[in-house]
Every structure is written in structure tokens, then in C-alpha cells.
Write a structure and sequence with these properties.
Elements (H helix, E strand, L loop, with lengths): L2 E7 L6 H14 L4 E7 L6 H11 L3 E6 L5 H11 L4 E4 L11 H9 L5 E5 L7 H19 L11 E4 H4 L12 H7 L5 E5 L15 H19 L4 H28 L9 H28 L9 E5 L2
Parallel strand pairs: 1-2, 1-4, 2-3, 5-7
Antiparallel strand pairs: 3-8, 4-6, 5-6
Length: 313
């Protein structure tokens, strides 16, 4: 199969028929063998009903329905698990991504040797204050910390080699940083393509202000896990040992000082409590921190979601 198109969606029943027809037109024109995997992330409208109706008209359409809303990362991860195409393309369901970009994205993976290609919505139709400016800050921070020269990390329109999406996991809200996850997994050829950003035709945006705070937290998390996930002692051990040694040196100095220079009681000196605190913090960093990170990263339930039903898969 040439292409798997993964479409995460939440309350997008109005846009799905037009989107499915447009994708079919593009695929038929270029004679692609394809599948469209629509992942319903617990929609409360008629999205799943519409997907069933579309499936009856086009057997290339397949569906996954969550029992409740888990978020875009969960939807993408389930879609990636089921995708069988040589090239996987993701796009949003709100019609702001153009299916006419599919052939170029496919060609960059299949013929130009890219592991992943991320869309860049150079001209945007979103609100400048609430989306465009925060997105620029986001992307600048991600570029600087990761070394990946992309203008738009969070663009929903991307293409991937099959090997790449089968080698990574997307959880929490990490879909924003799939390029970084891919880089840490060893995929180096990550490209970018200017894509059309269309004005929203149906529905309303599903994102609020909290995603910007969460985005920076997720960036810190993914950078940490990518660098220290396999060797957490290099981080926690370093700072834990440093804090413990500072506390120990202060404690030893206070003890020597009491017996030889100043006979003031240890508990009457503020530095004594600072030394104890530093040693406790060092011990906690050395043990509790990296153990907790390892438990979270290796949790068998991290990517288990309640799938109500599947169709065509």
C-alpha cells in the first residue's frame, strides 16, 4: 500500500464528507493505493455515524473510536499502530489542511529519501494574538533546544516513513514534538515543506490557552527523556551527588569548628540546617527522582486506551 492517511478528530462531523471526497479525488488522480484511518477521539456529535456512512461508500476509509476523549497524541498513536502504508500522512479534520499537498509530501518521503517531512504554514489564518505569536515562541524554543531547523513543529500536516512511525510512541501531548522524538530515535533526515493553511470552514478551534503552558512543559520533558531516558543517573546522580557533597562538607566543617574553634552548638547555627537540607535533597534527587522517571517511562499502561470499536481494521 502506498499511503496511509491518519486523521485524528473530535466533533468534526460537518467537515468529514468533504475531506474524504477531496482525499479520494487526489488519490484516484495519482493512482495511489491508500487507506484513510479516521480516529474519533470521543466525539460528542455525529462524527462516528458519519464515518460509518463514509465507509459504506468507500472501503478505503477505516475508523477507530475511543470511548472518551484522550487527546490528539493518543489518537495519532492508535492510528500509527494500525497504518499499513509505506508512507504515512497525518492531517487535521477541520479542512485547514489541504489534501492537495499529499503528492508532494509522498514524493519527498518515497523518492527524496526523507524520514519525515513537516508542513510549514507560512501564511496563517489563525488569530495573531492567541495562536500565531505563541506558536512562534513555541517553535523558537523547540528549535533552539532540539537543534532541528523547523519553522512549525506543531503543524498537523506531516508525512513519515512507515519504519519511523512503527519505531516511536506518542503519548501525553507529545504530538507537538514528534520531530524531536524521531530525532532521538535515530531518524536524522527531517525535512520541511511550505503548505497551504486554509481558513477554518467548519466548527471551532479545540485548543485553549492551557496548551501553551503544557507545550513548554512537554518540551522540557521530551528533551529530558530523549537525553537522559536511557541513563537517568547521569542527571539525577550528578545533581544529587553535588547537593549531598555540599551538605556533607558544610556539616563536617561545622563539626570540626565546634570542637576546635567555636564551641557554639551545632543546632544553634543556621548552616547546620542548610547542610541537613542539602543532604536530604541530594538523597532524594539521587533516588526518588530517576526511579520515578523510569517507572513513568516503562509503565505498561501508558499507551493503553479504551477503544470502543474499530471498522475496517
Amino acid at each position: 500500500m502506498d499511503i496511509s492517511i491518519v486523521i485524528p478528530l473530535y466533533n468534526e462531523d460537518e467537515s468529514l464528507p468533504e475531506l474524504a471526497a477531496w482525499i479520494k479525488q487526489v488519490a484516484d488522480t495519482h493512482q495511489y493505493s491508500y487507506e484513510i484511518i479516521m480516529v474519533d477521539d470521543g466525539s460528542q456529535d455525529d462524527s462516528w455515524k458519519v464515518i460509518n456512512e463514509l465507509r459504506n461508500k468507500n472501503e478505503h476509509i477505516k475508523g477507530i473510536k475511543f470511548q472518551r476523549n484522550y487527546g490528539k497524541s493518543a489518537a495519532l498513536n492508535e492510528g500509527f499502530r494500525s497504518a499499513q502504508g509505506d508512507v504515512i500522512i497525518t492531517m487535521d479534520a477541520d479542512m485547514q489542511d489541504s489534501p492537495d499537498e499529499i503528492p508532494a509530501l509522498y514524493n519527498m518521503i518515497k523518492n527524496e529519501g526523507y524520514d519525515m517531512v513537516s508542513g510549514w504554514k507560512k501564511k496563517r489564518y489563525d488569530n495573531t494574538l492567541t495562536k500565531n505569536i505563541p506558536s512562534k515562541l513555541f517553535n523558537a524554543a523547540a528549535r533552539r533546544s532540539s537543534g532541528i531547523k523547523l519553522h512549525d513543529f506543531n503543524c498537523g500536516l506531516k508525512s513519515y516513513k512507515k519504519k519511523l512511525i512503527k519505531s516511536i510512541e506518542v503519548y501525553g501531548e507529545m504530538h507537538r514534538y514528534i520531530p524531536i522524538i524521531a530525532k532521538w530515535a535515530g531518524f536524522k533526515k527531517i525535512g520541511e515543506k511550505v503548505v497551504e493553511h486554509r481558513p477554518r470552514k467548519y466548527g471551532v478551534t479545540k485548543f485553549g490557552w492551557e496548551r501553551f503552558v503544557n507545550g513548554f512543559l512537554d518540551l522540557g520533558s521530551i528533551m529530558f527523556v530523549g537525553k537522559f531516558g536511557k541513563r537517568p543517573m547521569h542527571f539525577f546522580g550528578l545533581w544529587g551527588t553535588l547537593a549531598f557533597m555540599i551538605g556533607l562538607i558544610i556539616f563536617l566543617w561545622l563539626t570540626i569548628s565546634k570542637f576546635f574553634f567555636d564551641h557554639t552548638g551545632l543546632t544553634q547555627r543556621p548552616l547546620f540546617f542548610f547542610a541537613i537540607l542539602a543532604m536530604i535533597m541530594g538523597t532524594q534527587l539521587f533516588l526518588a527522582g530517576f526511579i520515578g522517571e523510569l517507572i513513568a517511562r516503562n509503565s505498561p499502561d501508558r499507551n493503553n486506551y479504551l477503544v470502543e470499536t474499530k471498522m475496517g481494521l
